[in-house]
């Protein structure tokens, strides 16, 4: 029962009115840069992907400089339901709302009641004196305003938030400095949580140590504590914003999770394969399973080919399920029949689209700061072309960071694609650019004639 969340059931007129208020308040917060730049939740052009890219970029940059990165993942107990209405109303003047707006929000939050409907019977109504209304457009935005000053408590460490999902992290050359910086800021965060009547969930808060050294340091050597001096649990891997992270950022645990989940679903689908036509099978796979492969693919794309191979195998299995073709059918024939990109090209396609959006849209400044135009003191032949400055790295792993890979991959695109300003034109040009012409056939077409005949015979 402790995990049930009350949902505000309101009529359509009120929903429209809430949406109008939400749009006005959101636009006001954006134009005046009021929300913390470290908050990625429920904001236009911000996402879990952008937050993960920033987080992993800082870790890879630390690896390149032979640094360790300690990260403390903080979980809050029923964060949205614990927001005190009076504390929230006290914070609204700090963002510049006038008196009439404050009175409106006071009326909006106060005197709320809720009940339970079960088998046609209603329970007694109870007053709700805390929590932002869930199921409403304004709820998440009000929560973001409520915790907007939390990042200011981190002085010696970095912080990233996605709604209430919080990570405090620090990259240093030794574990002593990591422990000092994170412990100091975490103590300040705990005091802030207490004063704002939010509760830490100790059972779901973990510390991780990210490192890429020949002689790894044991994470257990770092002893972080809560205010009551109890130790914070240490994890070897952690699922942050839907992505499994391990200590070396190999993403092997995440890939294994994807393969296991898709294999199980595909096994169930095979039980009723005769019930679906080709178009239905393609729609099922595209809408229910492919999103599992697509989520976070631009983040784990830099892992080794050995780690990525199981994804290619399961991707080919999905193609065989749709087309019902023999097991030994060549993957290039299946991709051509489905008009799908190979999985590696699909990841690159998503990556290029994301970079384009970072350049041309109001994407987070914590990523756009790494895309600075290249300035040369010489009068070069290609001075009028669009190039971004690529930082120097010391190791191969430094090339996995966003601040290196994004400008580097953009610069490697043909000028005809880089110069496009329309998103749809850029998208179509990238599709053509990434069309895979496989040389697996080795001009041995005779051995593939049965498969070619099979595809020709498909409806």
TrEMBL record:
Pfam families: RVT_1. InterPro entries: DNA/RNA_pol_sf (IPR043502), RT_dom (IPR000477). CDD domains: RT_nLTR_like. Residues 1-245 form the Reverse transcriptase domain. It comes from the Eukaryota. Coiled coil: none annotated. PANTHER family: REVERSE TRANSCRIPTASE DOMAIN-CONTAINING PROTEIN. This is Reverse transcriptase domain-containing protein. It comes from Oryzias latipes.
């Amino acid at each position: 029962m402790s995990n049930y969340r009350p949902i505000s059931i309101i009529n359509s007129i009120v929903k429209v009115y809430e949406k109008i208020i939400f749009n006005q308040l959101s636009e006001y917060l954006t134009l005046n840069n009021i929300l913390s730049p470290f908050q990625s939740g429920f904001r236009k052009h911000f996402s879990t992907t952008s937050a993960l890219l920033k987080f992993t970029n800082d870790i890879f940059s630390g690896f390149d400089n032979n640094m360790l990165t300690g990260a403390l993942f903080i979980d809050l107990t029923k964060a949205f339901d614990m927001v005190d209405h009076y504390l929230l109303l006290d914070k609204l003047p700090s963002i510049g709302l006038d008196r009439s707006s404050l009175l409106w929000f006071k009326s909006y939050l106060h005197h709320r009641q809720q009940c339970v409907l079960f088998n046609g019977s209603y329970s007694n109504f109870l007053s709700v004196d805390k929590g932002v209304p869930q199921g409403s457009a304004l709820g998440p935005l009000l929560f973001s305003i409520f915790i907007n000053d939390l990042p200011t408590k981190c002085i010696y460490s970095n912080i990233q938030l996605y709604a209430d999902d919080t990570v405090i992290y620090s990259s240093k050359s030794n574990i002593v400095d990591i422990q000092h910086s994170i412990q100091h800021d975490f103590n300040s965060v705990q005091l802030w949580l207490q004063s704002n009547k939010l509760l830490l969930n100790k059972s779901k808060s973990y510390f991780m140590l990210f490192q890429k050294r020949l002689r790894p340091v044991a994470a257990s050597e770092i002893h972080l504590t809560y205010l009551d001096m109890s130790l914070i649990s240490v994890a070897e891997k952690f699922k942050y914003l839907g992505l499994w992270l391990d200590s070396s950022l190999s993403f092997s645990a995440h890939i294994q999770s994807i393969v296991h989940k898709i294999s199980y679903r595909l096994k169930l689908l095979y039980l009723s394969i005769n019930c679906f036509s080709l178009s239905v099978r393609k729609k099922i796979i595209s809408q229910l399973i492919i999103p599992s492969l697509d989520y976070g693919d631009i983040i784990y794309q830099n892992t080794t080919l050995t780690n990525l191979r199981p994804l290619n195998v399961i991707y080919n299995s999905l193609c065989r399920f749709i087309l019902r073709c023999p097991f030994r059918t060549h993957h290039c024939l299946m991709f051509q029949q489905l008009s799908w990109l190979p999985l590696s090209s699909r990841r690159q396609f998503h990556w290029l689209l994301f970079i384009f959006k970072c350049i041309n849209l109001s994407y987070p400044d914590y990523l756009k700061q790494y895309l600075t135009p290249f300035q040369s003191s010489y009068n070069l032949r290609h001075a009028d072309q669009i190039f971004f400055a690529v930082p120097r790295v010391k190791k191969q792993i430094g090339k996995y960071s966003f601040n290196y890979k994004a400008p580097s991959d953009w610069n490697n695109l043909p000028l005809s694609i880089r110069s496009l300003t329309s998103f749809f034109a850029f998208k179509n040009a990238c599709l053509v650019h990434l069309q895979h012409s496989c040389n697996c056939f080795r001009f041995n077409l005779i051995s593939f004639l049965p498969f070619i005949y099979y595809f020709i015979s498909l409806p």
